Amino acid sequence: MLSASEYEALVSAVSRAGAHAVTDLQTYLASHHLPNWYSLLADMTPETRIYQPDCDLEAALRALDWPEFFIKDYVKSLKTSVGSHISRPEQVATLVADMHRFRGTIEGGFCVRRVESFLRDTERRYFVLNGVPHASFGDVPAIVRECAKRLPSKFYSADAVQRTDGQLRIVEVGDGQVSDLVGWTPERFATILAEEFLREH
């Protein structure tokens, strides 16, 4: 995953080579950075508060007074060491130290998400191309179709998971170029790309 400055350099290099990047810098960040898509999907995703990287995060968590917290930077959560899920504000110092240790930087700032109760093994990834949502198999659920209406980016992924009350929630959006094919076969992914290419031409 490229940072904003790295992606800007890539787009410039593509332009100097005489080509045109389908996804420009602002479009890339519209999906890649959580604060850029959160306001458009706030009713469909866990409540999230955004903080600057130099804030007193422990004090901010105490002020929220939530029973649990899920903490990530603008792009990724911590999937090693203590992980991103904590229940006490004083645990955040260790989490942030490990984010620096394993990721090397805090990209953008901190996103503190309210923890919701999700069913294990229900998360699925969908891709949206030119406003059309696609599933790896089966039907595209209504919440993903609504997501595709609200987010204007040309190519992105959206991850939906089922809550214990049966409701589907959007838990992540990502730029399509850097999204893993979670639950997809390369053949199925190539098919939707080909379909969209033919539709455009």
Summary of the model, kept short:
By secondary structure, the protein is α+β, with helices and mostly antiparallel strands.
Task: Give the SSE layout.
Elements: H1 4-16, H2 25-32, H3 34-38, E1 48-51, H4 57-64, E2 69-73, E3 85-86, H5 92-103, E4 110-114, E5 124-129, E6 132-135, H6 142-150, E7 155-162, E8 168-175, H7 186-200
Antiparallel strand pairs: 1-4, 2-3, 2-4, 5-6, 5-7, 7-8
Would you mind describing this structure in some detail?
- By secondary structure, the chain is α+β, with helices and mostly antiparallel strands.
- The chain has 7 helices and 8 strands; from the N terminus they run αααβαββαβββαββα.
- The strands form 2 sheets. A 4-stranded antiparallel β-sheet has the order 1-4-2-3. Strands 6-5-7-8 form a 4-stranded antiparallel β-sheet.
- It is globular and about 55 Å long.
- It starts with a helix and ends with a helix.
- The mean pLDDT is 94.
Q: Which properties best describe this structure?
A:
four-stranded antiparallel sheet; 7 helices; 21% strand; globular
